[in-house]
Design goal:
With 454 residues, the chain is α/β, with parallel strands linked by helices. The protein contains 15 helices and 15 strands. The chain has 3 domains: 260 residues, HUPs (Rossmann fold, 3-Layer(aba) Sandwich); 66 residues, Four Helix Bundle (Hemerythrin (Met), subunit A) (Up-down Bundle), CATH 1.20.120.640; 57 residues, no CATH class. The chain binds zinc ion.
């Protein structure tokens, strides 16, 4: 069996991965808060951990892996969006969930086995909060329930901070009802205009962190294998999940391995609305960037390194995939290359896996392996294709033939040369012979440059 190594944030080491139960390997990924389109940074963990899911399925068998990714559908950002727009909360969350599933499918990510919504697990959250209060890990105050960080010695272990450092460094919400400023909200009161559920602490709604603790317990148990997410969630979200789950389920160990992906930049700068470099997955798809191309660019950087989305990378990925799709045409996928598997098994080295694919593409005898291996990464599949189909080039070759015929008579070849130059500039190989004109796309082919040439 392939030996898997993963970098565990908890131990700060790359470790050999040994599942708790090889017939039931369990993975949890923190999902989106559903009030708006996913921006491209949001897509990074989804693509990265889709690769992990595919790898686990390959190593342990598809039926032996359970992958959970939640939807946070109760949150103050959603409430604020409803207030701004006058729309019903349910309409906003339903619409956003639909968009999200559509956009992530366009990026070639597989559906997790479970996609729980927080509002469907309120009873489980209330039960967990009740247990925490009963055991002295939480307390009720002024309609709130708060987790007491002083009750859990290991608080801060994941992110490697002490409670004192956190107080000094974090924007702590100071509230008179908190015993320690770092105590965080498990439950908070709702007014008549805010969604709320009855609870022992009054009508209210859950804090964000308790959602993942309750949903992972319900679907994966008190101890499971891997918890993943962006490194922006390490503190406080994941730290708080650990505190809640370990205190509420003292016999369970919660997640054994924690994986965190680094953030995404655009052209070397942090993506932000104020810099004007903020865009969603849908924006890119609507601009005609194929989901497969986006996926390829993401896979070209290791998940623990910051990733830079650049126009140059997009163009290069598009040319590579166009070339590979040309080679793959009509080829039956072969076995996945062991080199590709080994790269992925080494802490998800997707960039290394792509390097192996490049090498396979240069060997005419290895095209079946190229296709089989690429498909394991969610590339070169039928579903991800179609975008590369070249606009009908016959209109351009007919036009070139026609003006060449005319030029034979007039002896003025200037129009022929001009069109030929444009076609070459669009990345076409222009082959003219007595038999006629043939246009063959090269790896630099850019169909947008053909616009307006006829
Ligand atoms: Zn979470």
């Amino acid at each position: 069996m392939t030996e898997l190594k993963l970098h565990n944030t908890l131990t700060r080491q790359k470790e050999v991965f040994t599942p708790i139960d090889a017939s039931n390997v369990r993975l949890y990924l923190c999902g989106p808060t559903v009030y708006d389109r996913a921006h491209i940074g949001n897509a990074r963990p989804v693509i990265v951990f889709d690769i992990l899911y595919r790898l686990l399925c390959r190593v342990y068998g598809e039926k032996a892996v359970t992958y959970v990714r939640n939807f946070t559908d109760v949150d103050d950002k959603i409430n604020a969006r409803a207030a701004e727009t006058g729309r019903e909360i349910r309409d906003i969350t339903e619409e956003t969930v639909g968009w999200y599933l559509e956009d992530m499918a366009a990026l070639g990510t597989l559906s997790p086995n479970h996609m729980p919504r927080a509002t469907e697990y309120i009873a489980e959250m209330i039960a967990m909060i009740g247990k925490l209060i009963e055991d002295g890990h939480a307390y009720a105050a002024e309609g709130h329930a708060l987790f007491s960080v002083d009750s859990y010695d290991a608080y801060g272990k994941l992110s490697g901070r002490s409670v004192e450092d956190m107080i000094a460094g974090a924007r702590v919400e100071v509230a008179p009802y908190k015993k320690n400023p770092m105590d965080f909200v498990l439950w908070k009161p709702s007014d008549a205009d805010t969604p709320g559920w009855d609870s022992p602490w009054g009508r209210g709604r859950p804090g964000w962190h308790i959602e993942c603790s309750a949903m992972s317990k319900a679907l994966l148990g008190d101890t499971f294998d891997i918890h993943a997410g962006g490194n922006d969630l390490m503190f406080p979200h994941h730290e708080n999940e650990i505190a809640q789950s370990c205190c509420a389920n003292p016999k369970g160990g919660f997640a054994k391995v924690w994986l965190h992906n680094e953030m995404l930049q655009v052209e070397g700068k942090k993506m932000s609305k104020s810099l004007g470099n903020f865009f969603t997955v849908r924006d890119l798809l609507d601009q005609g960037v194929a989901g497969e191309v986006i996926r390829f660019v993401f896979l070209s950087t290791h998940y623990r390194k910051p990733m830079d989305w650049t126009e140059a990378k997009r163009a290069e990925a598009e040319a590579t995939l166009r070339k590979w799709r040309g080679l793959a045409n009509g080829v039956t996928p072969g076995d996945v290359s062991p080199l590709v598997i080994n790269a992925l098994a080494d802490d998800l080295n997707t960039a290394g896996a792509l390097t192996h694919l490049h090498a396979l593409s240069k060997d005419a005898g290895q095209i079946e392996t190229l296709v089989g291996s690429a498909q394991m990464l969610g590339l070169l599949t039928d579903e991800m294709g179609g975008w590369d189909e070249v606009a009908d080039l016959s209109a351009f070759s007919d036009k070139l033939s026609e003006i060449r015929q005319e030029a034979m008579v007039t002896k003025d070849f200037s129009r022929v040369d001009a069109l030929k130059t444009e076609l070459i500039a669009a990345g076409l190989d222009v082959r003219m012979s007595k038999a006629g004109v043939e246009l063959v796309p090269t790896s630099k082919f850019d169909p947008s440059k053909l616009e307006g040439l006829l």
